[in-house]
Amino acid sequence: MTGSGRLTLTARLNTSALDSRRGVIRLHPSAVAALGIREWDAVSLTGSRTTAAVAGLAGPDTAVGTVLLDDVTLSNAGLREDTAVLVGAVTVHGARSVTLAGSSLATRSVSPVTLRQALLGKVLTVGDAVSLLPRELGPGTSTSPSNRGATRALAAAVGISWTSELLTVTGVDPDGPVSVQPNTLVTWGAGVPAAGPVTREPLSTGTPAVLVEELRGSQPQAAKLAEWLKLALDEPHLLRTLGAGANLGVLVSGPAGVGKVTL
Fold first, then answer.
1. 6-90: CATH topology
2. What is the value of pTM for the model shown?
């Protein structure tokens, strides 16, 4: 116990898929009581930088002196696993506006309305990384039918990569930690183009550094990737005929050293 409504706890990685990248940390009920907060209140987290998140109750196997954070929250607080983090109660205001930066695909494809729905109920601080995964835990979250439509809109706009997309919070009003509300103005940040037509740069067609024939043992996988790319880029009308879109995502898996990155 540090005093003044703050605790020094040990940061541990939360491996729960339910909580992952949703802006939620987990505290022992005794820690919640010591902080003078209720479940789903916001807390500040200070390592080498300060961020904020929503606090849920941890399971019975979690030690009193431990706080469970996902990988993004660990990074936002400038922490490594098993290091000390200062946890305190914090006042969070409803955001009047939030600006974000993201990948070219996201900024050109995701509308501000869909962006707000995906971030509803999350607590944001300038400089934080934030995912598009909806919070869906506790009150004030994106679980209504209209907001669940954001998931479908993201999948249609960005493809399967929307689940791993990370944005950067570039501005909030008012200052300090804010919570995204149904009436919050959420936009792409200054200098980042909003959703609209994509201007494509001409591509050079030089010889690749590694030829398909040189991918020993991976030729079938390379051929399948080439087939998918040809469909998506050269024959999108075939995909539309099948009821699919060209926003394809590919998961390449296998043990270390088999050539996933090269492929």
1. Barwin-like endoglucanases (2.40.40)
2. 0.67
